[in-house]
Every structure is written in structure tokens, then in C-alpha cells.
Structure to design on (390 residues):
């Protein structure tokens, strides 16, 4: 879809019906359902300057009040941009992501995760303004993060009034302001295990170092904490110290949650506070040998996380288990072109022949094709619709 953004189209042959809010995250009152007879043509009129993407921007400070898994429109400045991370999903699919700290005039910041080509192509130099339409909200421990999904529209420095106003604020005040990070949280845990110091070179040539720690607490849960830079180099995990973190950043992938330090994170070892003594006592008596629930462990990666269906070259295949709630049988069969590889609906000529407009030929026969709309419920309490073709 990347080459089709900001283009205008004539669409005919659709069914207009009230929007099903259960499966449609947009605020439109109506939706169009396409069929085999739908025709889409690009509008090539000379003056399309008045046709623009419509946004309903939400201030970053207001995201904390919204529910997880909602999709929203956001406008923010890329205050900082992480390195491109490449890794392999359990399915063997190669994935890549990049984390960005977005800020706006509400003096709040949020972590945005870009995926796939958007992550690879994004250049954060110069602190560009990012406009997002349909970014997804995630939540952990009260902290909120944003991520792009297959349907998210991302624009860099869009030519809209709000963009110019935001850029002006950032250059005059926001660049040096201490924004409230809604993706960061305070954490207290015991360093149950500590990994080795890892040194590597970023694509930019910058030398980096990190260290991963398994934190546990009295909830009998554990989480992976990543320390960076001097904090990673200087940390000594011997003796299972208690770590107090103020402003640790939350990340999510494949259902697993992790923590990491950022430039503004305050880290203290064995702080002299009551909670520290209580936690240390619990660990030495019970927690050291307990089997904690690792919330950083990734489950099976979802369709969104793996960016399935985002390729224009080929489709993706996966298995899903759920309960069928509704199978629409109306008009589930249609007369299709008999030519192999062509599934276009044919026109009955009322003389014993059938014309395929796609092939430009008439045939004496046709073949029935199955096209059913199905609603399914998953064990995650989510619903989705799909089509069965046959």
C-alpha cells in the first residue's frame, strides 16, 4: 500500500452499510464492503490539493486515560531514536523494529515502536515531526506505549498547521524540557541473575554496551531489565542486590514485556528504604528458590507482531484456533471463470455462454466458487472476521 498513499480513487460497486464498530476501529458511521464487482480507479484530476488525510490527534498526556489495543491518531516530535534491531521470530520470520521517543506540547513523551520497512527507512536526524493515523496502544504496569501495525499510516513532517506549530514549540522550548514519560515506570526488584557485559557496534558506528538482568519481586514474577552504557559496565550482580529504578522504559513484543534504562532513568542499588529490606528478606527466605513467572518470555507471536499480510508480493499462512460464532451463508456461491488462475465472476449472457470481463473471453461453462464471511472468537477474547475461499 505504500505507493498508494496520498492518492485519490473512484470506487464503485461497493455495498454501503452501517459500520460494525466491533470490527472497525474508525469513527466513521458507515463502511463500504467490496465484492468481485467492485471497481477501483485512480483519480487523475489536476487539482487534488484540497484532498488531505483527516486526523483526530490525541495529546500524548491523554493516552494514559485510554484503553489498551485502541488505535489512535498521534502527532509528535521524534526527540530520540534508537538503533534498528533485527531478530528472528519463533516462526523463523525475520523481523526488525526501531523505538522512538515522541514528545508533544502536553510536555509528555511516549515510546513508539516502528516495524518492518517503516523501522528500516525512518531517519530520526533533525527531530522530525511524525503524524500517525491508526497507531496501537499497549499497556504494562500502568505505562502506555504505541506501535505501528499493518494499517498504520505514518507521515514525516506533514504539511499541516499542527506540524508547524509543534515544530516551533519543540525548537523554542520542548527540546530541553523534561517531559513526563508515560511509557516509564518505577520498579523495585532483586537481581536474581545477571548476564555478561555485551559490547557491539551500532549501524551508525557507535560503540554500545549492555547487560541483561533478571529482576524478581514478591509477586513471584520476573522481568528482563537491560542496562546500557556506564550503568551496564558498573553494575555488579554478585550477592543479588535490590535494584530501585525510577523511570524505567517498558517495551513489548510477542506478548512479553521487558524493561530498559534510558538517559533519564535513576538507578539505585540496595536503597535504604523499608520496601528494600522487606524485599530482600522475602528473597532470602523464599524467593531465591521459587519458580517465578517470567513476564518477558514471548508467547506465540501474533499476526500483528509478525506483520503478516503486509507484503504486496505474496500472502502469509498461519494457523489459528477459535470458535465460529457466525457463518453468513447468503450469496456464498458465485459463478466464476473456468480458466485456471482466474476467479473473476462471469456474466451470464442468457444464451448458454458466460463472459469473463477480466479474460475478455466467453465460455460455455463456469465453475462455482465459495466466498463466505465468517466471524470467529479466539481464546484471547478477541473477535475477528475473515473470508473462506474455495
Amino acid at each position: 500500500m505504500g505507493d498508494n498513499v496520498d492518492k485519490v480513487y473512484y470506487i464503485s460497486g461497493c455495498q454501503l452499510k452501517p459500520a460494525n464498530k466491533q470490527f472497525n476501529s474508525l469513527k466513521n458511521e458507515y463502511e463500504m464492503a467490496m465484492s468481485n464487482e467492485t471497481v477501483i480507479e485512480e483519480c487523475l484530476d489536476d487539482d487534488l490539493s484540497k484532498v488531505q488525510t483527516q486526523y483526530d490527534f490525541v495529546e500524548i498526556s491523554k493516552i494514559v486515560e485510554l484503553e489498551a489495543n485502541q488505535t489512535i491518531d498521534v502527532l509528535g516530535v521524534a526527540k530520540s531514536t534508537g538503533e534498528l534491531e533485527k531478530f528472528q521470530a519463533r516462526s523463523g520470520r525475520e523481523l526488525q523494529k526501531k523505538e522512538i521517543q515522541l514528545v508533544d506540547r502536553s510536555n509528555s513523551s511516549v515510546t513508539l515502536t516502528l516495524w518492518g520497512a517503516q523501522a528500516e527507512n525512518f531517519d530520526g536526524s533533525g527531530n522530525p515531526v511524525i503524524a500517525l493515523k491508526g497507531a496501537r496502544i499497549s499497556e504494562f504496569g500502568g505505562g502506555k506505549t504505541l506501535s505501528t501495525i499493518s494499517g498504520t499510516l505514518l507521515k514525516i513532517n506533514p504539511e499541516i498547521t499542527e506540524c508547524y506549530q509543534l515544530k516551533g514549540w519543540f525548537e523554542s522550548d520542548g527540546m530541553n524540557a523534561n517531559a513526563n514519560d508515560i511509557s516509564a515506570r518505577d520498579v523495585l526488584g532483586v537481581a536474581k541473575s545477571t548476564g555478561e557485559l555485551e559490547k557491539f557496534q551500532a549501524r551508525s558506528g557507535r560503540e554500545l554496551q549492555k547487560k541483561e538482568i533478571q529482576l524478581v519481586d514478591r509477586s513471584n514474577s520476573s522481568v528482563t531489565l537491560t542496562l546500557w552504557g556506564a550503568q551496564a559496565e558498573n553494575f555488579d550482580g554478585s550477592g543479588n542486590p535490590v535494584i530501585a529504578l525510577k523511570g524505567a522504559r517498558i517495551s513489548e513484543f510477542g506478548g512479553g514485556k521487558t524493561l530498559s534504562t534510558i538517559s533519564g532513568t535513576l538507578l539505585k542499588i540496595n536503597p535504604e528504604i523499608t520496601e528494600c529490606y522487606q524485599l530482600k528478606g522475602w528473597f532470602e527466605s523464599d524467593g531465591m528458590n521459587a519458580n517465578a513467572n517470567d513476564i518477558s518470555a514471548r508467547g506465540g507471536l501474533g499476526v500483528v507482531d509478525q506483520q503478516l499480510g503486509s507484503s504486496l508480493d505474496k500472502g502469509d499462512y498461519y494457523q489459528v484456533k477459535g470458535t465460529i460464532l457466525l457463518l453468513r451463508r447468503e450469496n456464498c456461491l458465485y459463478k466464476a471463470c473456468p480458466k485456471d488462475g482466474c476467479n473473476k465472476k462471469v456474466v451470464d449472457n442468457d444464451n448458454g455462454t458466460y463472459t469473463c470481463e477480466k479474460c475478455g473471453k466467453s465460455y460455455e461453462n463456469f465453475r462455482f466458487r465459495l466466498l463466505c464471511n465468517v466471524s470467529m472468537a479466539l481464546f484471547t477474547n478477541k473477535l475477528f472476521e475473515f473470508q473462506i475461499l474455495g
The chain has four domains: 1-51, 60-181, 185-294, 322-389.
